[in-house]
Amino acid sequence: MKKKALVLIISATMFNGLWAQKHYEPTWDSLDSRPVAQWFDNAKFGIFIHWGPYSVPAWSPKGTYSEWYQYWLQSKTLFGNGDFKGDEVVNYHNKTYGKDFTYYQFGNMFTADLFEPDDWAALIKESGAKYVVLTSKHHDGFALWPSKEADDRGFPWNSMEVGAHRDLVGDLSKAVKANGLKMGLYYSLYEWYHPWWQNDRQRFVAEHFLPQVKDLVTRYKPDILWADGEWEMEADQWKSKEFLAWLFNDSPVKNSVVINDRWGKGVRNEHGGYYTTEYESEAPGFNRPWEECRGMGFSFGYNRNEDIEDYNSPKALVLMLVNIVSTGGNLLLDIGPDARGKIPVIMQERLLQMGKWLETNGEAIYGTSPWRGSFQWSEGERNFKPEQHYLGGDFILKQTVNPESGYAVKELFFTQNKNDYFAIAPNWPGKNLTIKDFKPDLGSKVTLLATGGNVSWKQSGPDMILEMPEFNPNTMIPEDKYAYVFKISGSR
């Protein structure tokens, strides 16, 4: 073995050993000192899966979250994109199922009888995603694994005893890991209508939340623990810091697990592991790895009320990914299977379309970091964003290929790895492409990843000018036209 390689191996082993040996105290200073695993920062693209009894009615008004069906039903309120009376879900439910039909009866209808975890995992792998995050338990409290704590409300409320009669978390975890992907588990800290949550929150934390989440971690050894539903109480009330100290010091995944930042009221973007945003655009300036999560439409859970125009186009999804990665983040893109375990065809199609683009252009995405301020803007007012509760995916089209009058567009996105620079154009540049204020080394080589062909370039004052080859659309598959990647080698 070469001496240099041996030194690197010894150094890596020492680093991992020091990380493993460190004892974390239940304080944010100590917990925040734990680094986020490098694989997460390199992955860039993951798939979120919202699946549960809410997948049975699979309905809410456009612009709202269908996975909040129970809350909309019992609280008689709505919020999201649009003007709502608040009784829309109640009226739909009473008309469709009857006034006496409770949300808990959907549990028996959540059969998952067409669920094929190997097929899900293979599809996700083909999408180019590197990790999965499954809702092990959403705010309705239904557990997708045989959790005894899920039954402490007085009746069975988990997938082993109700509906599917199957360990859905275990089955999907096994399939995802067998396909070489990382497996994450979403877990809601609170539950809307658990009697202890409503009447005795200390008991809920001590006898429900903490033993249940520890059981989840111990059974399935997730690569990511994705907390949510934290906003009703402070971290101290949740005992989050004590739990995270256990997770980092004593759990089966103490040396490997990655966590997010949703561990108590006011904690997001301040403490925990990586930072999270939701239906936003980009977040330059974070001092930790971060992740944007959103659905393909306006809902995380499957919403049969959404039409084709409510789903983002594949070009919009690719440009969203590029936009986020160019500012140092990951995209966690959601799919919502139906109650029988089928992923809607349009969602399958979007995943495959993104996978085709990444198959050609993934070099500019995976394992990269921001470069040159992330974007190159045209003249005009920047950062067009519609006023929406949830920022729709069409904002990226308005910022690139379909601008509003007077607004600038992002002409280029920039990423880099340890060897090369990448300039990503949302439109075919025409005869020339100008990278402003950039002087590469004279021997630098430019390649169009879609074709593998070389691109001539010249220096014009402070700018690098790429001279486009004559565009022949027959040389590119349709997916390559979502965004054009130019690789600049030899300037590192």
UniProtKB/TrEMBL annotation:
GO terms for cellular component: lysosome. Its EC number is 3.2.1.51. Residues 19-363 form the Glycoside hydrolase family 29 N-terminal domain. Residues 410-488 form the Alpha-L-fucosidase C-terminal domain. It comes from the Bacteria. It holds the Pfam family Fucosidase_C. Residues 1-20 form the signal peptide. Keywords: Glycosidase, Hydrolase, Signal. The keyword Hydrolase applies. GO terms for molecular function: alpha-L-fucosidase activity. Gene3D superfamilies: Glycosidases, Golgi alpha-mannosidase II. GO terms for biological process: fucose metabolic process; glycoside catabolic process. Belongs to the glycosyl hydrolase 29 family. Alpha-L-fucosidase is responsible for hydrolyzing the alpha-1,6-linked fucose joined to the reducing-end N-acetylglucosamine of the carbohydrate moieties of glycoproteins. This is alpha-L-fucosidase.
